[in-house]
């Protein structure tokens, strides 16, 4: 993917920043003022960060923001995903379950303009070869820590494992990233890593982000 792609900002030299698990309208507005590129909203009912429509009544008013909106789904029906894309004006779909390459391709066929992020849960047993099946249908990958929850476990996996990834699709690094990791992340040199996904380590409570903490992290890696 070209980093000049319109779904990202023009800050080519910087790592892209995705803040996930947003819900509170005021917090969304505050976080949107930071130098971030993507904001994630979770539509998985078992998540403590699940977004109900009434949670953010002025959701469509976010259209004035320069960042891109990402909807996170786990093994959802195709029609449910597409309904949320239209209802919430999503730019990206992030698939965090056991979705197949065919499932991803079906979404693309129905809604060609949507961008797809496929998440993979990584531990020492993860086979990076399986990502190649998804390359044609997905625009980005996201490598998260394998844990008891579908994301938001607050645990970092061994980043050395990423040396095994030799695919062509760019990826976001996720999984327990906190302020204490800013220096290490700024020194990472994986050719296809274009950004990071931040969530639980920057929360005051589920779905409520610590703006000052995020601001400090971003200042250290931007």
Annotate the secondary structure layout.
Elements (H helix, E strand, L loop, with lengths): L15 E4 L5 H8 L5 E5 L25 E6 L4 H11 L3 E4 L5 H10 L4 E8 L17 E6 L25 E3 L8 H5 L6 E6 L4 E3 L2 E2 L1 H11 L1
Parallel strand pairs: 1-2, 1-8, 2-3, 3-4, 4-5, 5-6, 6-7, 7-8
Antiparallel strand pairs: 9-10
Q: How would you concisely characterize the structure shown here?
A:
The protein is of the alpha/beta class and 222 residues long. It has helices at 25-32, 78-88, 101-110, 182-186, 211-221; strands spanning 16-19, 38-42, 68-73, 92-95, 115-122, 140-145, 171-173, 193-198, 203-205, 208-209. The chain has an eight-stranded parallel β-barrel. Strands 9-10 form a two-stranded antiparallel sheet.
Describe the structure.
The protein is α/β, with parallel strands linked by helices. The chain has five helices and ten strands. It has helices spanning 25-32, 78-88, 101-110, 182-186, 211-221; strands at residues 16-19, 38-42, 68-73, 92-95, 115-122, 140-145, 171-173, 193-198, 203-205, 208-209. The chain is globular and about 40 Å long.
Secondary structure tally, helices: 5
Mean pLDDT: 89
Strand order of the largest sheet: 1-2-3-4-5-6-7-8
Low-confidence parts lasting 5 or more residues at pLDDT below 50?
A: 1-12
Overall, the morphology is globular
Number of strands: 10
Beta-strand proportion: 15-25%
Structural class: alpha/beta
Helix content: 10-25%
Distance between the termini: 21 Å
- Main sheet specs: 8 strands, parallel, barrel
**H/E element order:** EHEEHEHEEEHEEEH
């Amino acid at each position: 993917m070209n980093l000049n792609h319109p779904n990202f900002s023009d800050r080519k030299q910087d790592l892209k920043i995705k803040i996930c698990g947003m819900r509170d309208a005021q917090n969304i507005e505050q976080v949107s003022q930071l130098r971030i590129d993507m904001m994630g909203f979770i539509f998985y009912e078992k998540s403590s960060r699940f977004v109900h429509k009434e949670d953010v009544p002025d959701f469509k008013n976010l259209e004035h923001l320069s960042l891109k909106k990402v909807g996170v789904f786990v093994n959802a029906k195709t029609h449910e995903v597409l309904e949320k894309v239209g209802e919430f004006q999503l730019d990206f779909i992030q698939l965090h379950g056991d979705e197949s390459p065919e499932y991803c391709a079906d979404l693309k066929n129905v809604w060609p303009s949507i961008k797809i992020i496929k998440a993979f849960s990584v531990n020492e047993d993860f086979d990076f070869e399986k990502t190649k099946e998804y390359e044609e249908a997905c625009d980005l990958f996201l490598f998260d820590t394998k844990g008891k929850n579908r994301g938001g476990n607050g645990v970092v996996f061994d980043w050395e494992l990423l040396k095994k990834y030799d695919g062509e699709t760019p990826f976001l690094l996720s999984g327990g990233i906190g302020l204490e990791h800013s220096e290490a992340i700024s020194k990472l040199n994986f050719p296809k890593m274009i950004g990071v996904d931040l969530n639980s380590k920057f929360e005051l409570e589920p779905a409520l982000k610590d703006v000052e903490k995020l601001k400090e992290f971003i200042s250290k890696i931007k």
